Amino acid sequence: MLEITYLREHAQAAAAGLKKRGLDAEQSIQDILKLDELRRQNQNELDQALAESNQISKEIGLLYKEGKRDEADKAKARTAELKERIKELQQEQEQLKNSLDQDLVALPNVPIDIVPAGKSEADNEEVKRVGEIKAMPEGAKPHWELAEELKLIRFDLGVKITGAGFPVYQGKGARLQRALINFFLEENRNAGFEEYQPPLMVNEDSGFGTGQLPDKEGQMYHVTEDKLYAIPTAEVPITNIFRGDIIEDEDLPIKATAYSACFRREAGSYGKDVRGLNRLHQFDKVEIVCLTKPEDSMPMLNSMVEHVAGLLEKLELPYRILRLCGGDMGFTSAITYDFEVWSAAQERWLEVSSVSNFKTFQTNRMKIRYRGEDKKTQLLHSLNGSALALPRIVAALLENHQGEDGIRIPKALQAFTGFDKI
C-alpha cells in the first residue's frame, strides 16, 4: 500500500509512474488527497474537542469547591456537548479512515524510474543473456516425454490422486527434486540467508500484508471454514514473520530463505503453456526474502539478481534476465527482474524466477519498521525472489542436458543427487 505521505509530496510523480502500468490514476490520487485532507481536518477538530473536554473536566471540581455553582453547571453542560461532538467526530474519523484505506489499497505500487513503460511481456527489456543455445540432438524430446519414459514423473498418477497439475515424482525424479531443494538452500545459506521452515497455510492478515489479498484471492486455494489460504509462495509467511515489528538498526539487513510447497489455482491457464511441468497447481520452490533500510534496497536487489544468476550458471543452463515493463509487473512491485531458462525441446524461454523490490508497499501494510540512530521509526523496504522454482528448472535440466546415453547432471548438483546421469 502506498504511503499517504508519499502521495501528498509526490502526487504528480506517482501519477506519471503509474502511467507506465497503463493506469491513469491522476483523478484517483486527487480523490485520495481530498479524503486525506478531510480526515486530517476531522482529526484536528477531534483533538481540540478532546483537549477542551479534558481541560473543562479538571476545572469543574475547582469551581464547585469555590462555590461557583452556575459556572460549574455551565461547564458540565459544555462537557456534555463536547462528548456528543467527540462521538460524532470519532465515527466520522473511522469512516474517513476506512474510505481512505480502501482507496489506497486499490492503487498498485509506483514503478521506479528505470522500469520501462509497457502493457505486456512484449514490452519487457532484456538486460542480459548467458549461455549458448545449442541445436538439440536428433530425436531430442520434451521433458514430459522424457519424464514418462524414464519413470521420473507420473502426471497420470497425479490426475488419479488429485487432478491435473499435481504430478507425482518417483525414483530419480523424486531424488532430483530433493537434490535441487537442498542445493538451493545450501547456496542461499552460504550467501548469508537464514533458513526458515514456514507454515503452508496463512490467515487473511498475512495474505493482505504481502499483497495477495485482495488482489489475487481468485488464484489462491481457500479453506473457507477456517478462513485460511494455501500459500502461493514462501514469501507470504516469511515476510509476515516480521509483521508489526520494530527492528533495531544493528539487526539489518534481514536475509531469509525457505523451501515450501506452493499452491496456485492458475485459473484460466490452458494450451501449450500448461503442458508437463510448465504450469502446475502444486510445485516446490525455494524463496529468498530481504528487509533493508531504504537506501540499501537497490544494492540488495542487484545482489539478489547476481545470486540467482549464479545458481543458473552452476546448473549450466542458458538463461536471460528481463526487466519487466510497468504493465507486466505484479501489483505490489516497484521493479522486477524475471529470469528465464531456455527450453531446448520446446524452443522457448521459461520463467523460473522473479526478483522484486517492493520498497515500502508491503511494509506499510504490515507496519514493519526499523529504529535508526535517531531512535525514530521508519518503514523498511522488502524484497523477494525465487532461488529457485523447481518445475521449469527440472524441465530445462531434462531437455538441455539430454544426450544419446541419458541425461547429464550438472557437476554442482551431483553431490546432492548422488548420481551423475539419468
Describe the protein.
This protein has 422 residues and is an alpha+beta fold. The protein is built from 13 helices and 18 strands. It has helices spanning 4-9, 11-18, 26-65, 69-106, 143-149, 155-161, 172-190, 204-209, 235-240, 297-314, 361-366, 390-400, 411-417, and strands spanning 125-130, 153-154, 168-169, 194-196, 201-203, 222-223, 228-230, 246-248, 254-263, 282-292, 319-323, 335-343, 348-359, 369-371, 377-379, 381-389, 402-403, 406-407. The strands form five sheets. The protein has an eight-stranded mixed β-sheet. It has a three-stranded antiparallel β-sheet with strand order 5-7-6. Helix 7 (172-190) packs across helix 13 (411-417). The protein starts with a helix and ends in a 5-residue tail after the last helix. The mean pLDDT is 95.
